[in-house]
Amino acid sequence: MLLRLPTSVSEAQEYMTEGAVPIGGATLVWATWQRDGFPDRSMSLRELPEANTIEPEALGAAVVLSRIDDRVPEVLRRAAAGVGTGAVRRTATVGGNIVGSTLRCLLPAALVLDARAVILEPEGVTETDLAEVLAKRHLLLSLRWRTPVTSNYVKAAAEPGGPSPLVVAAALHRVDDGRTLLRVAVRSEDEVFSESAECHGDAADAEDLLRTLRNGSLGRLPASAGELVGRQVTDLLARTADR
Ligand SMILES: Cc1cc2nc3c(=O)[nH]c(=O)nc-3n(C[C@H](O)[C@H](O)[C@H](O)COP(=O)(O)OP(=O)(O)OC[C@H]3O[C@@H](n4cnc5c(N)ncnc54)[C@H](O)[C@@H]3O)c2cc1C
Predict the structure, then answer these.
(1) Which residue is closest in CA terms to ligand 1's atom 1?
(2) C-alpha distances in angstroms, 5 versus 10, 45, 114, 152?
(3) pTM for this structure?
(4) How far does residue 205's CA lie from ligand 1's centre (Å)?
(5) How confident is the model over 4-62, as pLDDT tens digits?
(6) Quick one: fold of 2-144?
(7) Domain spans, the chain
(8) CA torsion sign, 80 to 83 to 86 to 89?
(9) Pocket of ligand 1, candidates 13, 21, 27: which has the most ligand atoms within 8 Å of its Cβ, to mutate?
């Protein structure tokens, strides 16, 4: 297998055109490749500056999860810190987690940030939404978002041999017309649900918000997940009460 290490977007484009398969930390693909055979060419983005940014409003796809720190919003930092073991986090990348893994603990966090995906196509760099990246398995260069007012993330304890643990991510955003929007995303039994609701900032808001969320796709969640959503939303609103 020839491993390509592009240092510019144009090099990455050239290697993509020659059919190089994207590789992050190989925590998932290695075993499969050993069993089924290695591709002729692969491409790691670890030398590509655009895929290595860690900023308040951007995160590169080649960044390993253990490097994600308080430069990014809390929801994303906590999501990365909760993936697997320390050894996995020191090797696995953002791109491998979002595009390549089935658990995708970073996905609910990226959804509540309303993150856009910066992708590379044969024609060049473009931006799209996360749903399209997952459906078409685009080559992800980075994620971009607008800084939220506040955000939080919780991952329930996993039961041995049980389904993947429940994850709840939430963020409050000030939108351009002055409104405040709550976004919540939940991973429950390998399915990801996301909803948003407008906040009006009065005392009854938490109950109103939860009712709005339940009227959407979050209404399909099991009761235990609904309780965790309630706690996270209440926590977020309490944090913003003094702002
Ligand atoms: C012991 C263990 C525990 C784990 N626990 C968790 C957990 O709790 N939560 C969780 O979410 N995950 C968990 N995982 C999965 C982990 O997140 C993935 O192994 C990891 O994110 C994959 O990243 P990688 O960089 O190693 O990907 P790789 O193995 O290199 O690649 C995986 C796939 O992603 C594709 N890919 C890689 N980079 C890109 C890119 N930039 N653009 C497009 N496609 C790309 C590859 O082509 C490949 O198909 C666990 C894994 C292990 C081994």
Answers:
(1) 84
(2) 12, 6, 30, 35
(3) 0.96
(4) 38
(5) 999 999 999 999 999 999 999 999 999 999 999 999 999 999 999 999 999 999 999 99
(6) 3.30.465
(7) 2-144, 150-240
(8) negative
(9) 27
